[in-house]
Design brief:
- By secondary structure, the chain is α/β, with parallel strands linked by helices.
- The protein folds into two domains: 2-159 and 246-402, Glycoside hydrolase/deacetylase (TIM Barrel), CATH 3.20.20; 161-243.
- It is 46% helix and 10% strand.
- It is built from 16 helices and twelve strands.
- The strands form four sheets. Strands 1, 4, 5, 6, 7 and 11 form a six-stranded parallel beta sheet that branches. A two-stranded parallel sheet has the order 2-3. Strands 8-9 form a two-stranded parallel ribbon.
- β8 (303-305), α13 and β9 (326-328) form a beta-alpha-beta unit.
- α6 packs antiparallel against α8.
- The chain starts with 8 loop residues before the first helix and ends with a strand.
């Protein structure tokens, strides 16, 4: 079980060693953020890339009460505590006017502006912990947030494929002592070649489960991901661990959230990474999700978020064909033919704005909101043309991508 992973001496040693390197990186990040923030260089860098003309749209995933009890059954980089989320919201509220996605969309369409900069807050995947922890906080503060839900999971008790994959790999490496070679052999039995992991994503061995989770999700269609998950779950007897994974909202919760004035939007039917799927599957994911939401909610669904922010010259036209007016990514690249279907977002988690002492840093938050670190690092690593990527898609178009 994944719950035993920290009792493994080898895993504990790896994590302790990784902690020293992490602290050093945090000191460097914290010092750079303060210098960039107080000198004004951070905002200047953002303005060079046109960031000043873009609204602030932030994204989150799991919202929890405490980290220690949940990090063992959730992907750590998707977690934020309710207290840390409140720090983020308080920082934003002093500098921006919170708007709904409908208000944001109208501003982008008409070019209208407000006296105060605007910000929108979104939550991906439709986890139940949004209802338990984020929803009461947002209502108390009057923040008109949006929730991008995976319709095929709502009220079913089934768990997200990426959560199941991470839990299975964490159990394999950290609880059962499997090596990368062991996992590669397991993949080979399924006819799947183990993907290469970029060195910068594998800063320490304890990060192998998450690094391999990312690599598999980025390269395989969902049908193959499910085969890997089912093989590992069966081999390692992970039934209890899967049950402990984050649950999805129910339709009753979705109705209550919408009734409180928040936006319910689409995040596909199954959370498949659309750039890994055939065009017909892409259409099914975006069309059926919108249709189900409109049937359940009795309203037009205008907004869509690409799973993992991944889009290309097939997925964007498919989203347009499905009838969405606005769609959101996780990088600064835009499709010039469909700018309103490639609206940038910045996704944050618990550690995104921490200084070297583990405290919330306004300077780092400022750099995150202005995308300063992203721009210094060179921006998005993803190529957004399926023709160039040689992926599952075969259609070609006049797709252009630019950092605004």
């Amino acid at each position: 079980m994944v719950r035993r992973q920290l009792s493994n001496p080898r895993a504990r040693t790896l994590i302790e060693g990784a902690g020293e390197k992490k602290m050093l990186r945090q000191w460097v990040k914290s010092g750079a953020a303060h210098a960039l923030c107080w000198s004004g260089t951070g905002k200047w860098i953002g303005s060079l890339a046109g960031r000043r003309n873009l609204p602030v749209v932030l994204g989150y995933h799991n919202v929890v009460e405490r980290l220690p009890d949940t990090a063992r059954t959730s992907i750590p980089a998707m977690l934020i505590t309710r207290a840390m989320l409140e720090r983020h919201l308080d920082w934003l509220g002093k500098r921006y006017q919170f708007v709904s996605l409908d208000e944001l969309g109208d501003m982008l369409q008409t070019g209208a502006s407000r006296t105060k900069p605007v910000a929108a807050v979104t939550f991906d995947d439709g986890y139940r912990d949004f209802y338990d922890h984020a929803f009461p906080l947002l209502r108390r503060k009057g923040v008109p947030a949006a929730v991008f839900v995976v319709t095929g999971l709502i009220g079913t008790g089934r768990k997200q494929v990426h959560d199941r994959l991470y839990l299975a790999l964490a159990a394999a490496f950290l609880s059962h002592g499997r090596s990368p070679r062991d996992v590669a052999r397991a993949l080979g039995r399924l006819g799947i070649q183990a993907p290469e992991i970029p060195p910068h994503r594998l800063k320490h061995a304890a990060g192998m489960p998450f690094a391999l989770t990312r690599a598999l999700l980025e390269t395989l269609p969902q049908a193959q991901i499910l085969r890997v998950v089912e093989e590992l779950e069966s081999e390692l007897d992970l039934e209890q661990s899967v049950e402990a994974a984050p649950e999805a909202l129910t339709w009753e919760m979705v109705a209550e959230i919408r009734g409180a004035g928040m936006t319910i939007a689409s995040h596909t039917r199954t959370h498949a990474f659309l750039t890994n799927e055939k065009r017909q599957r892409v259409l099914e994911e975006v069309v059926e999700s919108r249709r189900e939401l409109e049937k359940r909610l009795g309203t037009t669904v205008k907004h869509f978020a690409y799973p993992d922010g991944r889009f290309d010259d097939v997925t964007v036209p498919a989203v347009a064909e499905a009838g969405y007016r606005f769609a959101y990514t996780t990088c600064l690249h835009r499709d010039l033919s469909h700018p309103l279907l490639t609206i940038p977002r910045k996704v944050l988690w618990q550690n995104s704005c921490l200084d070297a002492n583990g405290r919330f840093s306004p300077a780092i938050m400022s750099c995150q909101v202005n995308r300063t670190f992203d721009l210094i690092a060179g921006g998005c690593e993803t190529r957004h043309s399926s023709a160039l990527d040689g992926g599952a898609h075969t259609a070609k178009g006049s797709f252009q991508v630019t950092v605004p």
